[in-house]
Write a structure and sequence with these properties.
Elements (H helix, E strand, L loop, with lengths): L2 H15 L1 H11 L14 H15 L3 H14 L4 H8 L5 H6 L4 H8 L7 E8 L2 E7 L9 H15 L2 E9 L3 E10 L14
Helix pairs in contact: 1-2, 1-3, 2-3, 4-8
GO molecular function: heme binding
Pfam families: HNOB
Protein name: Heme NO-binding protein
């Protein structure tokens, strides 16, 4: 698994629950290190071990932790680059949804060896969409809950009101349903093209 995935888990725990919580989690695993290097590749089982240890330490199901990581990636100041990458997808939340199919390719432009889930959006009706999340071969992390948290945070970022449903999964695909209840429900976060 790419180090960026493991590093995202680490940064989520450290930024949300504190450095001591992270050191307690990683220390119990006896991996021989306490921090992940973003550009290294780690054995897939290491990611699974870290997720389950985090779930145990926080006393929360793995899917909830993954969803919170997705939200963290968009909403925390330390991950502003991820938000910027996503906001380049369009002026409205619906524009963003329709650009999700291209997101894996855009992520690989930034980090060529990053393996990310495939995304496929289908319109079910005027304001209802189904998103298929195709987990990469050999992945020990299910990305559906991460994408769910990411969508929730992006809807807030755009000021849209959405209802999100996790519909279930097969071995390779997870399905999410997105009900866009209002495109301009609230004031979204400011976004400008140029970096500040």
């Amino acid at each position: 698994m790419h180090g960026l995935v493991n590093r995202a888990i680490e940064r989520f725990v450290r930024d949300t629950y504190g450095r001591d919580t992270w050191l307690g989690i990683i220390g119990k695993l006896d991996l021989g290190f306490s921090e992940f290097e973003a550009m290294l590749i780690y054995e897939p089982q290491v990611t699974a071990q870290v997720l389950h240890a985090t779930s145990d330490a926080l006393q929360r199901p793995v899917d909830e932790v993954l969803e919170d990581i997705g939200t963290y990636l968009v909403s925390h100041p330390n991950t502003a680059a991820v938000r910027r990458l996503l906001r380049f997808s369009g002026e409205t939340f619906e524009d963003f949804l329709h650009s999700l199919d291209d997101l894996p390719d855009r992520a690989r432009l930034a980090v060529s060896d990053l393996t990310v889930p495939g995304l496929e959006l289908a319109d079910q009706s005027a304001n209802v969409f189904c998103l298929n999340v195709y987990n990469p071969d050999g992945a020990t992390v299910r990305f559906g809950p991460v994408v769910l948290g990411l969508l929730r945070a992006m809807a807030d970022d755009y000021g849209a009101l959405v209802f999100l449903e996790y519909l279930g999964r097969t071995d390779t695909c997870e399905r999410l349903r997105i009900h866009l209840l209002a495109s301009a429900h609230g004031k979204g976060r400011a976004f400008v093209l140029g970096a500040s």
